[in-house]
């Protein structure tokens, strides 16, 4: 939003190269895993409400499907680029692998700003996206899901288009659907809750009771809100959140030292997770510059907005009190800033581990949809907790045993599994 010169795919490749070095991967496997296996670029003609036709650009990138059907969200964003989609697709491969679920990695997107599209236009855009890639996606090859600025309704329109074209019912084609229309209970909460399950485990290892901690969160969308909900259930105190202001085209932080009220802030935010700054001020929140969330005197920082947020320019503003950074967003920390965090010996729970709860629950949704048999919410959340906890413990144990950072350990475990699957299939 504010700046976009940073190339996310180069950052993802740099992280992968480091993991490949640690694993001493052979040249062919490195070359194979550094790039997506397949990518589709297309145009989507959209009949606008005013009678004109506008052309939008769409993408689907399948990074790797050696361990199972490709899986990954679809983002609607005005600054979407193919390199962003490539990076996110690659991270999906590592995410499904570190969570040890039988899926690969993919990502999709459309360069558009849904703030400026009517619901009818959004529906036609979703249907247009499916029409352009229907030959290349499907319940047993590539299963999409929501991501930034897409939601359950978008997924249902996409599913409907897929089913209208195929003439069959395929609820397992897409995840993140509305509950009652093939969606899973608990999917809405899953990513944010998953982030906090990893925080809970980290605090347990550090011997710190959650109720003695405070946190600051960047973003107030799907991931951020449910992370806050579970953290508050554990009696942690959130003192600051931030969000994007569409009118001012910048972000603001909202601080309340005695702890933010989730319901109150939700009631004054729009469907894109933007908080109304005038109403927040009336409710007693200090409205601060966008980056203030990062400068808070807290124990835990949770970036849960977008990529490229913790950078060389601001990493030194992080308070010495911060003990844990749990990356709810994908790619919030640049590789250079990550170096600086390592030097400060800050404990970072890396994105593709911390935010894996979404895809874990998407996997549960896919299983339920394909069986046409749906589980109770407690069962879904219980299974989510078990998967997230075991993924966290495996990474943490590996990091300690091999004196690696959590990011390095997560990479070594996940890249190794994918490389092995590629070798087992005889691909490399
Ligand atoms: P969302 O669209 O629901 O919310 C995004 C939030 O970030 C909004 O509150 C928006 O106002 C805020 N924001 C945007 N730019 C900002 C900025 N510069 N400063 C402060 N706030 C800003 O998106 P989401 O689904 O919550 O996803 C957030 C991140 O988590 C993304 O990186 C996404 O890829 C990642 N993620 C999402 C899921 C999921 O299940 N939704 C799963 C895994 C990872």
Describe the structure.
The structure is a single chain. The protein is an alpha/beta fold. It has a domain of 153 residues: 3-Layer(aba) Sandwich (Rossmann fold), CATH 3.40.50. 44% of the residues lie in helices and 18% in strands. The protein has 14 helices and twelve strands. Strands 9-8-7-6-10-11-12 form a seven-stranded mixed beta sheet. A hairpin with a 5-residue loop joins β1 and β2. α3 crosses α14. It is globular. It starts with 7 loop residues before the first helix and ends with a helix. The site of nicotinamide-adenine-dinucleotide has 28 residues, from α7 and β7.
Termini separation: 39 Å
- The CATH C-level class name of the domain at 31-183: Alpha Beta
CATH fold assignment of the domain at 31-183: Rossmann fold
Strand order of the largest sheet: 9-8-7-6-10-11-12
Main attributes of the structure:
14 helices, Rossmann fold, 428 residues, binds nicotinamide-adenine-dinucleotide
Write the layout of secondary structure elements.
Blueprint: H1 8-23, H2 27-34, E1 38-47, E2 53-64, E3 70-77, H3 82-98, E4 105-111, H4 119-133, E5 142-146, H5 152-166, H6 187-206, E6 214-218, H7 222-233, E7 237-245, E8 250-255, H8 262-267, H9 277-282, E9 286-289, E10 300-303, E11 324-326, H10 335-343, E12 347-349, H11 351-354, H12 357-371, H13 377-402, H14 406-424
Nicotinamide-adenine-dinucleotide binds at residues 1, 147-149, 191, 218-224, 242-244, 251, 272-274, 290, 304-306, 328-330, 355, 358.
């Amino acid at each position: 939003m504010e700046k976009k010169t940073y190339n996310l795919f180069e950052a993802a490749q740099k992280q992968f190269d480091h993991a490949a070095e640690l694993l001493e991967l052979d040249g062919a496997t490195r070359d194979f895993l550094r790039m997506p296996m397949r990518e589709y670029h297309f145009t989507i003609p959209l009949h606008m409400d005013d009678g004109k036709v506008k052309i939008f650009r769409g993408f689907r990138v399948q990074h790797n499907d050696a361990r199972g059907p490709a899986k990954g969200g679809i983002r609607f964003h005005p600054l979407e680029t193919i390199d962003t989609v490539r990076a996110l697709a690659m991270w999906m491969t590592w995410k499904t692998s570190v969570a040890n679920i039988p899926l690969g990695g993919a990502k999709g997107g459309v360069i558009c700003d849904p703030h400026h599209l009517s619901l009818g236009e959004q529906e036609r855009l979703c249907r247009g996206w499916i029409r352009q890639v229907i030959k290349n996606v499907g319940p047993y090859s590539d299963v999409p899901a929501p991501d930034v600025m897409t939601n359950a309704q978008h997924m249902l329109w996409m599913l409907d288009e897929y089913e209208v074209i195929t003439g069959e019912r395929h609820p397992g084609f897409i995840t993140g659907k509305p509950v009652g229309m093939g969606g899973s209970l608990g999917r809405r909460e899953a990513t944010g809750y998953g982030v906090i399950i990893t925080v809970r485990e980290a605090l347990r290892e550090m011997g710190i009771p959650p109720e003695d901690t405070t946190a600051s969160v960047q973003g107030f969308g799907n991931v951020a809100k449910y992370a806050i909900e579970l953290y508050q259930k554990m009696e942690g105190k959130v003192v600051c959140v931030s969000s994007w202001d569409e009118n001012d085209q910048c972000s603001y932080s909202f601080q309340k030292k005695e702890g933010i009220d989730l319901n109150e802030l939700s009631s004054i935010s729009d469907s894109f997770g933007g908080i109304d700054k005038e109403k927040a001020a009336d409710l007693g929140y200090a409205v601060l510059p966008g980056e203030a969330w990062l400068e808070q005197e807290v124990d835990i920082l949770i970036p849960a907005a977008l990529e490229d947020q913790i950078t060389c320019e601001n990493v030194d503003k992080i308070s010495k009190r911060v003990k844990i950074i749990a990356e709810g967003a994908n790619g919030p920390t640049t590789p250079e800033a990550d170096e600086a965090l390592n030097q400060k010996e800050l404990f970072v729970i890396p994105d593709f581990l911390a935010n894996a709860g979404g895809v874990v629950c998407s996997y549960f949704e896919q299983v339920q949809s394909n069986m046409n048999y749906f589980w109770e919410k407690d069962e879904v959340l219980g299974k989510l907790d078990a998967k997230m906890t075991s993924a966290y413990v495996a990474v943490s144990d590996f990091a300690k045993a091999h004196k690696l950072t959590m990011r390095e350990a997560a990479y070594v475990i996940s890249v190794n599994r994918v490389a092995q699957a590629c070798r087992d299939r005889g691909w490399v």
